[in-house]
Amino acid sequence: MLDPHHALQAAARPAARGAPSLRRVLVLGGAGPLGAAVMEALLGGHRFERVGVVVRQRVQPALRGLLVVDADDAAWLRFAPDTAVIVFDRERHANGRDEPFLRPMPADLQAMARRLLTAGVRQLVVAVPHAPSMLPQALKAGLASLDEGAVAALGFEHLVFLRMAQAGSADASGGQSAPQRLAAWMLRQLHWMVPSSDQPVRVQTVARVVASLAVELRDAPGGTRVLPPELLWHAAQVTDAQPLVLRWLAGEGLPPVRAPRMRL
């Protein structure tokens, strides 16, 4: 039988850093390879009281501890998230398992951000895929569109745009015309001209970085940030991305990239 004196002593001790905090995070874009990996990383970190995912139709979640939240303003207010993650991800063939989940589209970014702000979200992470050979160098550190600029002006305490390099699929040329196949082949050749730090990394690596950002943003200096692709490359070389994320949020520089060009 538990000794009441010991129980009171345990309750009086200050919580150690890393203990679960009473916070809630809402994921928009739980479908797709990255969305699923982000939810697993958030749940596995045990740093949020509740992890929710927005759905278009009610479904029994397969991940333990995951809560489904309807795609309406009243449901978001009831869930009361302080942090949110928007994942723009490619569609995948999963035998209909992804159908219930809300799949954000780029044109919906401003509207979704406004609704999240109204629901109480103060920390927002947006994961945006891109083709590394097509992204100008200046946009790797700045806002890439008027929509991103408008979201930055809404007044979130912390806002991070994470641009992850998007790998092409092996069967992407199926059903394309001859000119389209030629253009796709030429784009694939550009892969060898892209620095290793800009190459696509595994979705699990991106998910670990996203989860670390969601946890650590609240205690970081406020503002809008664009996460550099070099951080994702460095995160792919280690098992724990949290120290890298903390260094970056504190304004410290990342170590130089010294590696041959290769796909991670």
Topology:
Layout: H1 4-12, E1 24-28, H2 32-45, E2 50-55, E3 66-70, H3 73-79, E4 83-87, H4 109-118, E5 123-130, H5 146-152, E6 158-165, H6 178-189, H7 203-216, E7 223-227, H8 229-235, H9 242-249
Parallel strand pairs: 1-2, 1-4, 2-3, 4-5, 5-6, 6-7
Helix pairs in contact: 2-7, 4-5, 7-9
Description:
The chain has 264 residues and is α/β, with parallel strands linked by helices. It has one domain: NAD(P)-binding Rossmann-like Domain (Rossmann fold), CATH 3.40.50.720. The protein contains nine helices and seven strands; from the N terminus they run αβαββαβαβαβααβαα. It has helices at residues 4-12, 32-45, 73-79, 109-118, 146-152, 178-189, 203-216, 229-235, 242-249, and strands at residues 24-28, 50-55, 66-70, 83-87, 123-130, 158-165, 223-227. Strands 3-2-1-4-5-6-7 form a seven-stranded parallel beta sheet. β4 (83-87), α4 and β5 form a beta-alpha-beta unit. α2 packs across α7 (203-216), α4 (109-118) packs parallel to α5 and α7 (203-216) packs across α9 (242-249). The radius of gyration is 20 Å and the shape is globular. The termini are far apart. The model is unreliable at 1-20, 130-142, 168-174, 189-198 and 260-264 (pLDDT under 50).
CATH topology: Rossmann fold
Uncertain runs with pLDDT below 50, 5 residues or more?
A: 1-20, 130-142, 168-174, 189-198, 260-264
Secondary structural class = alpha/beta
Biggest sheet strand line-up? 3-2-1-4-5-6-7
Approximate strand percentage = 15-25%
Largest sheet properties: 7 strands, parallel
As a percent range, the share of helical residues equals: 25-40%
Mean pLDDT: 77
Q: What's the CATH first level?
A: Alpha Beta
Series of H and E elements? HEHEEHEHEHEHHEHH
Let me know the number of strands.
7
CATH architecture: 3-Layer(aba) Sandwich
Q: Identify the overall geometry.
A: globular
- The CATH superfamily is identified as NAD(P)-binding Rossmann-like Domain
The Rg value, from CA coordinates, equals: 20 Å
User: How many domain regions?
Assistant: 1
N-to-C span: 53 Å
